[in-house]
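STRUCTURE:
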């Protein structure tokens, strides 16, 4: 009798779980980059579905735009740099940090063959993907300090992705 009751309870639980509607959950990413690999892996492994979530991972073509979409309530969570959150919160938004996929800021600078050190950038231009993101701040502080100039003397040029230009 006990065994039959257990089997019936299991069947009932499985039936209820199968009939339960998955909760839609929109996740914004700034770009399809390695730092969001864990999100895709969890999706591919069925981890979200196992928790009753139907996750849609959306490329926002930039963290600044994604943070704005989050603040407007059009997505549920955003993988974004801290500077976008700080800027929006200073303007009245109420965004919160709930986790981090990294404990360091990972940026790589690429240059032409005649730039061999940060000092070679003095008086030059550094392109950034999006104004308002971490990149302008990091290039201002890091490159300019290493080159012996002040951030205000540097000329920034925005270089955007094709999707951001549309």
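SEQUENCE:
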């Amino acid at each position: 009798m006990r065994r039959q009751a257990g089997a019936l309870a299991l069947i009932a639980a499985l039936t209820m779980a199968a009939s339960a509607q998955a909760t839609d959950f929109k996740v914004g990413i700034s770009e399809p980059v390695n730092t969001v690999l864990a999100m895709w892996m969890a999706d591919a492994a069925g981890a979200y579905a196992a928790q009753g979530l139907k996750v849609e991972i959306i490329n926002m073509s930039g963290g600044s735009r994604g943070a704005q979409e989050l603040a407007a309530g059009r997505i549920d969570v955003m993988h974004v740099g801290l500077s976008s959150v700080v800027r929006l919160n200073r303007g009245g938004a109420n965004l919160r940090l709930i986790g981090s996929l990294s404990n360091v800021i990972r940026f790589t600078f690429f240059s032409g063959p005649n730039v061999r050190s940060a000092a070679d950038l003095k008086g030059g231009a550094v392109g950034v993907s999006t104004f308002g993101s971490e990149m302008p701040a990091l290039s201002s502080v890091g490159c300019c300090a290493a080159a012996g100039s002040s951030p205000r003397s540097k000329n920034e040029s925005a270089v955007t992705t094709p999707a951001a230009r549309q």
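REMARK: Residues 12 and 94 are 42 Å apart (CA to CA).
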